């Protein structure tokens, strides 16, 4: 059988091709003003009426301050309802919203702010400490606005910023050119190098909202309750938070993951839909803490950012008593999800089918020829979600696409006869052992099935004769005394010779991961 291009369903056009500002402004007004939209971890409840009022007030003040279409406003904060209000207000006035990781150091912030050049930065009392050292830089923002209640000399308090705005003044969101104007600047995951600034247009992000509401995909609706602990600076957390507002899903914000708080929140708020990442799936599947809480309200579990194995999916299904764990695969550069498993489909290990408007091809990396089912190659994409490009980096933008205009993912995978996609590993992370390709994820997945292993990360260790040999970094399960020899033998008994742990095993306190749950293999390499 020859190779084919996989195609997602067409645009159903139930969201207008307009600015994100118009889409959300009109979308919020459709809901009962007394309906609760957002609850935060301090039990502050924001109704749709309050959300509209505050987002419009902030938009008016942004205009008064001189913010105009395509100006950049940056947000450096933990998850908070004010974060979402700021994003909406930015959309209303046609500004470009630039969420950044709240853990970035001054040096990292210097890199990103010098590229995005924001006029305003919304921050917290904690994150402002890494912004102030950049005060002498030419790109330093005109004003800092602090979400926290305390007054700081260097920043204006968020509530004070909203004072003296005429609530009775008429307001209409600014229209933009949806396919040209940038709604969001997000940073790439940076798993293999310095993150880049990804430009997503209003039209790009509209595709994410279509997928989020489509019952064949994420399917958020007004009967759902969901929980937001994935960081809003990441496309996954950002999309779920905003889509929940658009589709009437009650959205509980947690500013960070805490196991007991997370489980108690599911129990207390009767959460129906969990959008999470593999480390949380691992926690839900293996932690004895889970049995102490009533999680029976959960009906739908979606996991993204890294592949899950059949064994982990099955274990999590049994623990949570759900019909299936749904995997989603995506990239910041394609505005989020490009494949997703439909609800209740029993098909293990797959990341699902192509999402609306997207086309996927899997090619031989050397010849660029289309591959038939079950042959592993690089995934490449076209569609309405594909980014405008990397801000300030024309060379990287050009290199990101092939000659047919498909975005190169750098991920290896294959598809089956039904068009379901399976992710194998990152192209650049494959271990080359004597010419054999060894996917680290395959070894990690097997190691995680061992009762003594809490978490695992595998990389290639340079070797004169073999090129590279696999080495495993292991976090032990509490009260388990698993040894290096035991794990080396365990892999040897279950894997072909080229995949054995010739580099040995190292026991560590934790596996370094990005906020979205991806293993930071470069950090593991630094440990070598």
TrEMBL record:
In the UniProt record, which is one GO cellular component term?
A: peroxisome
The record ties this protein, via Pfam families, to: AMP-binding, AMP-binding_C
* Keyword set includes Nucleotide-binding: yes
Database matches in PROSITE patterns: AMP_BINDING
List the catalytic activities from the record: firefly D-luciferin + ATP + O2 = firefly oxyluciferin + hnu + AMP + CO2 + diphosphate
Q: Which InterPro entries match?
A: AMP-bd_C, AMP-bd_C_sf, AMP-binding_CS, AMP-dep_synth/lig_dom
Names of required cofactors: Mg(2+)
Q: What are its E.C. numbers? A: 1.13.12.7
| Superkingdom of this protein's organism | Eukaryota
Q: What is its main location?
A: other
Ranges in a coiled coil: none
Keyword field: ATP-binding, Luminescence, Magnesium, Metal-binding, Monooxygenase, Nucleotide-binding, Oxidoreductase, Peroxisome, Photoprotein
Query: Which GO MF term does the entry hold, naming one?
Result: metal ion binding
Q: In its UniProt record, which GO terms are filed under biological process? A: bioluminescence
* Domain named AMP-dependent synthetase/ligase: residues: 34-391
What does the similarity note say? Belongs to the ATP-dependent AMP-binding enzyme family.
Indicate what this protein is called per its UniProt record. Luciferin 4-monooxygenase
């Amino acid at each position: 059988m020859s190779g084919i291009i996989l195609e997602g369903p067409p645009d159903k056009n139930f969201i207008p091709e307009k600015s994100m500002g118009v889409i959300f402004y009109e979308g919020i007004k459709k809901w009962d003003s007394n309906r609760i939209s957002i609850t935060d971890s301090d039990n502050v409840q924001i109704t749709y009426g309050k959300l509209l009022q505050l987002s419009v007030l902030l938009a008016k003040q942004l205009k008064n301050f001189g913010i105009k279409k395509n100006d950049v406003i940056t947000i450096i904060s933990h998850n908070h309802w004010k974060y979402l209000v700021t994003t909406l207000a930015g959309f209303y006035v046609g500004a470009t919203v630039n969420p950044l990781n709240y853990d970035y150091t001054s040096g990292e912030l210097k890199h990103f702010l010098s590229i995005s050049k924001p006029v305003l930065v919304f921050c917290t009392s904690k994150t402002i400490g890494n912004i102030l050292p950049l005060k002498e830089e030419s790109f330093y923002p005109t004003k800092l606005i602090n979400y926290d209640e305390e007054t700081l000399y260097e920043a204006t308090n968020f509530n004070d910023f909203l004072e003296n705005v005429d609530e009775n003044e008429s307001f209409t969101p600014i229209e933009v050119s949806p396919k040209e104007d940038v709604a969001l600047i997000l940073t790439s995951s940076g798993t293999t190098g310095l993150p880049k600034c990804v430009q997503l247009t209003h039209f790009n992000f509209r595709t994410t909202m279509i997928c989020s509401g489509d019952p064949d995909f994420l399917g958020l609706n007004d009967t759902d309750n969901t929980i937001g602990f994935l960081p809003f600076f990441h496309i996954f957390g950002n999309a779920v938070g905003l889509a929940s507002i658009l589709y009437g899903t009650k959205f509980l914000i947690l500013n960070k993951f805490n196991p007991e708080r997370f489980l108690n929140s599911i129990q207390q708020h009767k959460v129906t839909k969990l959008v999470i990442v593999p480390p949380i799936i691992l926690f839900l599947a293996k932690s004895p803490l889970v049995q102490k809480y009533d999680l029976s309200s959960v009906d739908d579990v979606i996991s993204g950012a890294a592949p899950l194995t059949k064994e982990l999916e099955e274990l999590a299904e049994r623990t949570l008593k759900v019909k299936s764990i749904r995997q989603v695969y995506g990239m910041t550069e394609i505005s989020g999800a490009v494949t997703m498993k439909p609800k209740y489909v029993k098909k293990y290990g797959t990341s699902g089918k192509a999402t609306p408007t997207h086309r996927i091809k899997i090619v031989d990396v050397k010849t660029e020829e289309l591959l038939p089912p079950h042959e592993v190659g690089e995934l490449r994409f076209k569609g309405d979600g594909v980014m405008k490009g990397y801000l300030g980096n024309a060379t990287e933008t050009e290199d990101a696409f092939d000659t047919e205009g498909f975005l190169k993912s750098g991920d290896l995978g294959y598809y089956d006869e039904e068009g379901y996609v399976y992710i194998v590993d990152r192209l650049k992370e494959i271990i080359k052992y004597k010419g054999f390709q060894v996917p680290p994820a395959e070894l990690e997945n097997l190691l995680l099935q061992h009762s003594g292993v809490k978490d695992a990360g595998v990389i290639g260790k340079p070797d004169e004769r073999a090129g590279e040999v696999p080495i495993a970094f292991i976090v032990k399960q509490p009260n388990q005394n698993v040894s290096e020899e035991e794990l080396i033998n365990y892999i040897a008994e279950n894997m072909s010779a080229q995949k054995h742990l010739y580099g040995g095993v190292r026991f560590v306190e934790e596996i370094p991961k990005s906020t979205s749950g991806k293993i930071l293999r470069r950090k593991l390499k630094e440990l070598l």
